[in-house]
Design goal:
Layout lengths: L12 E5 H12 L5 H8 L10 E5 H14 L5 H8 L6 H8 L4 H11 L7 E8 L2 E8 L7 H20 L7 E3 L11 H5 L3 E2 L6 E5 H4 L8 H19 L4 H9 L9 H7 L4 H10 L4 H19 L4 H7 L5 H12 L3 H7 L2
Parallel strand pairs: 5-6
Antiparallel strand pairs: 1-2, 3-4, 4-7, 5-7
Helix pairs in contact: 1-3, 1-4, 4-7, 5-10, 11-14, 12-13, 15-16
Length: about 350
């Protein structure tokens, strides 16, 4: 993922899609505020539409939201941001939701893959009497920005439900865990649903009778394809902190031939023996990581057509083209020449 020139993520950082962060600045700009200097002060001047994701310290995020509330005159910043988060702003997760078969399937989808968009909340769905409750559980202490953050997220999910239901009378109600605030009278209109304050939970409830009704836009093939992509992205996200991921980045950094085990160990401040043991604990080895990278790069080069088979072999560190051909057949089940023919 593209970072916005910010520091590496730590346990005190938060990562959000760049589009989400931009919406905060654009909402404030709508109140006549020049946001360029403000972005620079927060260290977020590199955030742009090309920023796939943005990592910032948690206290920077807190200041961002608080200052947005101030600049907007305490006028429903969260809701104004949430309004902008339509179903098509959530990447592959939004695409999967658009092709889901029912509201229940959408909720289960979001519950499973919400980490791809934010770690601020978890979502669960369940029956409560004749209602189906979509419960939002905070994963961080939000403090003074709680109302703005929760209202933005709940409205974003409500937008998804409204879109996929295509005008079906959801009869939804919104539950919020705090007292009515200065702009409380705006909430029912923006949510397009009644709002209940001072509740012991946060979320959306809909009649159980509509949860499993088939959706008109459902496309099972597209849904399954999107799920596969979401799963791969989730696995990549979960593996970002592993030693194997660090070594893969080293191998992909363009240094050829690939570094020896000793050189790789030195780059991560370990002895070769420790690196070998740690990789074993993660279910892999240095040899296997090199093999996986060679496989990935071989496919990329052959698909691009920028190098001959012999050139690909040499680029990947094979001194003998025959060894590359044997390795490729082991990876793909066919020799590289046959694989190339299948692309045309």
């Amino acid at each position: 993922m593209v970072k916005s020139g910010l520091k590496e993520k730590t346990t005190d950082d938060i990562t959000l899609p760049g589009f989400y962060v931009l919406q905060i600045f654009e909402v404030v700009a709508g109140f006549g505020i020049d946001t360029a200097e403000w972005q620079a002060q927060l260290g977020l001047s590199h955030v742009s539409e090309d920023s796939d994701s943005v990592t910032m310290p948690w206290d920077t995020f807190m200041r961002l939201v608080q200052q947005a509330e101030h600049y907007a005159g305490d006028q429903a910043v969260g809701l104004l941001v949430g309004q902008r988060l339509a179903v098509n702003t959530h990447g592959i997760l939004g695409f999967a939701a658009m092709n889901s078969g029912s509201i229940r399937q959408v909720v289960e989808l979001v519950a499973r893959f919400i980490p791809l968009r934010t770690d601020l909340i978890h979502i669960n769905g369940g029956q409560q009497g004749d209602q189906y409750q979509i419960v939002f559980q905070q994963q961080r202490e939000l403090g003074v920005i709680r109302a703005s953050v929760l209202e933005a997220i709940v409205l974003a999910i409500k937008n998804i439900l409204d879109f996929i239901s295509m005008g079906t009378a959801l009869q939804a109600r919104i539950a919020l865990p705090y007292s009515p605030h200065t702009y409380a009278d705006l909430l029912p209109g923006l949510f397009q649903s009644p709002v209940d304050f001072n509740q012991d939970w946060v979320g959306i409830s809909v009649p159980l009778s509509v949860v499993d009704q088939p959706l008109k836009m459902a496309n099972n093939a597209s849904f399954r394809e999107a799920i596969d992509i979401c799963q791969k992205e989730l696995e990549a996200l979960e593996n970002q902190g592993t030693l194997a991921a660090q070594i893969q980045q080293l191998l992909l950094s363009g240094h050829h031939p690939f570094p020896t085990l000793e050189a790789a160990a030195k780059s991560v401040y370990m002895t070769p023996r420790t690196l070998h043991r740690r990789l074993q604990e993660e279910g892999t080895s240095y040899k296997k990581l090199i093999e996986d990278i060679r496989h990935r790069l071989a496919l990329q080069h052959l698909k691009k057509g920028d190098l001959t088979i012999q050139q690909v072999a040499y680029a990947l560190g094979y001194s003998d083209v025959a060894n590359f051909r044997r390795a490729f057949k082991r990876w793909q089940g066919v020799p590289p020449a046959e694989y190339l023919n299948s692309l045309h």
